[in-house]
Amino acid sequence: MGKKTHRRVGPNSDRRSSRVETSDHRHVDSVETPTSQERKRTITLFLVFIIFPAISAIVYRRIYSPYTATVPNLPDVYRRGLVKTDVYYREVLAEHMKVSENVSRRQFENPVLAYITPWNSKGYDLAKKFTSKLTHISPVWYELKSEGSTFILDGRHNADTGWISDIRMKGDAKILPRVVLEAIPVDLLTKKKQRKKVINLIVAECKEMDYDGIVLESWSRWANYGVLHNPEMRKMALQFIKQLGEAMHSVILERNGQTLFLVYVIGPPYSDQLQPHDFGPEDLLSLSNVVDGFSLMTYDFSVPHNPGPNAPLKWIRSILKLLLGSDNGSQGLAKKIFLGINFYGKDFMHSGGGGEPILGRDYLSLLEQHRPVLQWEKNSAEHFFLYSDDKHIKHIVFYPSLMSIAARLEEARLWGAGISIWEIGQGLDYFFEIL
């Protein structure tokens, strides 16, 4: 991993001073008149303030053209020169709270799904402040649980109806609470009446609470239970999702005349050889008519025993190619993908064996305390830094930057996909400038 260097554009090195050469090849400085001195001063000022900045701007755009060429009306963080690889910790500390007064302009034109968690109230505030930049908001509120021979949908106590009203007054973002299926899958999937009962519970909650739909998370839970290794159970799992989607699309909301919206959470395959529990391209295709969007969790690539980047860009690209293929026919499905972007980071022990997620406030605290050198890892397109703790244990920290986020937004643009952010309360305020 290394830090990317950039060429500097400087004055022409072969520029010669005004000299007169004598017959014996000795050099004698010419005598300058006041007029020639004034002319030189004017030329120098012209070069310093006009020509050199223009050249630097051209070189800058050449270097970063993959990330800036398609961004219309460059946001303020670009004009302030903050979206770059050679970031300094002082810049982050000084600039992270500064956002433009016009927070309504969207820079990323595709759908943006923002997750919010009850245990991080900052996300609620940021969702209200930047509502116009978000098209879908998913508060993490609900769990479907087994209770004896029946099921309960737990989580209404988390719902904040006042906050929902504030969001709807400020913009048109859909409110899609997340529902995690914690219920024992064998009981749910194998019994037709139980499946219908669960679907009715979810639809009724959406109607009573006036939600726009839900984000459903179940695939990873089913994989942990081992049911996806059974071909018949796998078919039942897909059938349940289809039935839920059909039931939600049969409901017309009085508020806006739209049907209930279903987003399904899918994890990334970790190899080209799909395992039985992986959600693959055939699954994506089979659900595409009944599911409105797929929240793709392209993060958490590295683990404590193998420290590294959170979501290498090449890995993200390979996941998209695996799920969507590489032909133009994939564009229709790509529009339903919410490409996962993490707003949290990871603080690993450099030697492996330990690590934990960090939020924006933790990251800023580490910058203040250790004043590290931020480095750009070009293969993953992520920033990181090293530090030693009080016990002299070396750590490596990966945390999002404006540049790393810009690179992932550009990747989503190229595919025609949207993005999903986990979760907005964990990031820095100026991240929203490029959304």
| Oligomeric state of the chains in view | single chain
User: Largest sheet at a glance?
Assistant: 8 strands, parallel, barrel
Major beta sheet, strand line-up: 3-4-7-8-9-10-11-17
Unreliable stretches covering 5 or more consecutive residues? 1-34, 45-49, 51-71
Q: Radius of gyration from the CA trace?
A: 27 Å
Q: What level of helicity do the residues show?
A: 25-40%
How would you briefly describe this protein structure?
The protein is an alpha/beta fold. Helix content is 37%, strand content 19%. α10 (281-287) links the parallel β9 (261-266) and β10.
Description:
The protein has 435 residues and is an alpha/beta fold. 37% of the residues lie in helices and 19% in strands. The protein contains 14 helices and 17 strands. The protein has helices spanning 34-68, 76-79, 89-95, 122-129, 161-170, 185-189, 192-209, 219-225, 231-249, 281-287, 313-324, 331-334, 360-370, 402-415; strands spanning 19-21, 27-29, 112-116, 136-147, 150-154, 174-175, 178-181, 213-217, 261-266, 293-296, 337-342, 345-349, 355-358, 375-377, 382-388, 394-398, 418-422. Strands 3-4-7-8-9-10-11-17 form an 8-stranded parallel beta barrel, surrounded by 5 helices. A 5-stranded antiparallel β-sheet has the order 13-12-16-15-14. Strands 1-2 form a two-stranded antiparallel sheet. A hairpin with a 5-residue loop joins strand 15 and strand 16 (394-398). The longest helix is centred in the first third of the chain and has 35 residues, at 34-68. The two termini are 28 Å apart.
